[in-house]
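Build the 3D complex.
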Amino acid sequence: MPAPVPFDPEDVAAAKGKPRAAKPGIVTRKTICQTCDIACSVVSEVKNGRVVKVRSSDNPLFRDHICMKGIVAPKGYANPNRITRPLKRVGARGSGNWEEVSWDEAMSDIGVRLKAIIAEHGPEAWAVSTSQWNTGTDHGLGRRIMNHIGSPNWISGVALCAGNTAAVNRFTYGWFPLGDFGSTNCIVLMGHNPRRHSWTPIYSAVRKAQARGAKLIVMDPRKSSNAERADIWLPLKAGSDTAMMFGWLKVIFDEELYDKDFVETWTVGFDELKARVDEFPLDRVAELTGCDPDMIAAAARMYATSGPATIPWTPITDMQRNSTSGIRLQSILRAVCGYIDVPGGELLQGFHPDIIPESEIEMHHVLSEAQKMKQLGNQDHPAFTYRGQAAFREPMKRVWGYDYPNQVTGCYMANPSATFRAMAGKGPYPVKAFFFLGNNPMMSYANMPMIIDGMMNQHLIVAHEHFMTPSAQLADYVLPGDSWLERPWLSDGFGWMSTYRPSEQAMEPPGEAKSTFEFWKHIAAALDRADLVPWENLEAFYDYRLAATGQTFRQLSTETDVYLTVPKYRKYETTGFATPSGKVELKSSVLESLGFDPLPYFREDPPEDPDYPLKLFTGVREDGFFQTGHRHISEMRERHPEPVAFVSPGTAKRFHLEEDEWVAVENELGSISIMISIRDTMPDGLVRVPHGWWKPEMPQGIEGLSGARKYADAQLCRDDEDYLDREQGIPHLKGVPCRIRKLVETAPARADESALEVAK
Amino acid sequence: MSVTDKQRKKENRGAALQTWIARRSSRNRTLIDRICRRLIEKAVATDPERDFMRDPLIDNDPGFDPDELDRFQRGESV
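Done.
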């Protein structure tokens, strides 16, 4: 049974379920927090033109969807070191010296230089990196302009976080589904650990489901907080998720627990898949995963017989050398058990029929086939590139009504590592201009040393940012971005769901900070293509997208905070699935046509290297931070003053490690400094390292990059072929060989308030 | 596991009803809207002793003073 939730009556403060009284002098705005990528509906309270509080939504659908990062946002964005004027580099790249310029001056120079690069090297020499939070969605406008100019080289952190999952799910059933937590009977968390202050709505949904009796199965090497509350916890070896799912399928097939009607009617390749699954008897799976075979079988039976069940998206399988097979096996489990597009299962939502999706704004059809085929990385690792997704164009149009539906912006990307190699002069052609928006790319992808080489080899780098991140420190221009408090937004869950939510602008941006909409509108004009962004402002752009609803953005946001469509189930019975065969492809015809194994498979780890006896798991999320952000907020840094690596007591004993001791964690690619924390919840031999550490208070410039060279986990993330997924070319971050070296230097004191003042 | 037409109709009716209630509840203007909101509030209510969303940091958050935020933004306070 799940463990009870700890309860302290004193914790129950404000009464819920009652209208909140209006406060004198306070105006409220219905907003969507974009501090992280979960996008919680919240209320911003405004006084004297400034947001003074962010609190939970009054709408019971979203009540308590708020975390510590959200409530501290008003102070985080008021930080005196926020960039509020355009900055132009002075001196050599990475000098750390800047002068303020106007937007017009910046854009005039950027336009001249970008056009010169395109004239000399071709439009593919311009690459853009962004993600859909921080400075916010770019509305598809970046892709739209790039597609017209002729560059296919757009990359994003979603390449190893949900975007790639979206693209790979299509190989099986032609869309990326969303779990129906509200009606499900069983939830499987694969390494993902939603908490009160991290992925809050999912944490709430899991707890609510458990409260009404749903089962919870957790696969996780450590005893996570969800593992403690699970019905079954499978403490598998890091990176062995794919083998575990083969074991589940072995049980489900052998015991005939699958949905035979669905499999017979709606799938292809069952016999071939079954033969592959037979290569994974439970004793082999137990050896590969380190888990008890009886528990593996019990979990498989629970998943198959408790249904409808859901396997929610997890970043864990997005970041492994077996990522494509792992994601495919998740989708295969969903399908063969009959959980696709049914209540309580995995819903294939499509886009809302009344609203123009960002995919249409992107206009992928205008980019020529010749330019699409130049997309970096598409020959070796095509899964989420134009080439890898080309076979879905007709099926997508047939089922979902669009040629290029770009779910989670992850379905038509260049490969990040290939892009950085080209930037460093080691690709099939040069990339000489690099733009990034709210993305801190140096620390957001694998192989940070190569990314730095690539950035130092650019003729033009433009950043759109809130703060002087390590990546921004290498730019020619750093342009000030607005925050989610300071702009309207129309959220569609990144193209993952058909529900839309409007977010009202709550306050004016500081100084000359501008939205991504304005950024791209300026860039289009600088490239003599102002016609590509004809809308006067962001609200006019939203009015255009909402025209078929009969409402303007302002009307919609005044009337509601959620715009819904009635879900329909088993739509495939009418349309078929959006695959070439029209069925669920257990054996993928598209992967086969691309030259890959059409069935899932499992690549075992390379032989152990005695020099690196431990396994490294990067990507630990601390509640106070999201990705590489928020280290400048003193309230958050007080919670997490230093980067901390988790090890087990056994590992600590073996390597003579002490609590709070500073060590170097290193592998063949690089080394980082980090403090040790000894945790009973950790398995022996595993080192968990947090993601995205730098210190805004440390000196800026190429030498130290505000501590990024000392602390950033991206220096340990390899992208050589042994540690890349074959089909996608994304890195293996869950179980890379490493070692811990004791440092002789005296450990620095934990950061105090005064240490957070940014070094000038 | 085959699904009967009766089950399908029930599922579809249930989904349509839930969506209608959520839509009206989110509008929250008319009497019917407010009744819908009340229905959802009751549906999502949790026994306080088992309310896993309670968190002192969130529940007791006082927010910020606008003048203090102004001073902070000007670098006059930490």
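Residues 103-121 of chain A form the longest helix (19 residues).
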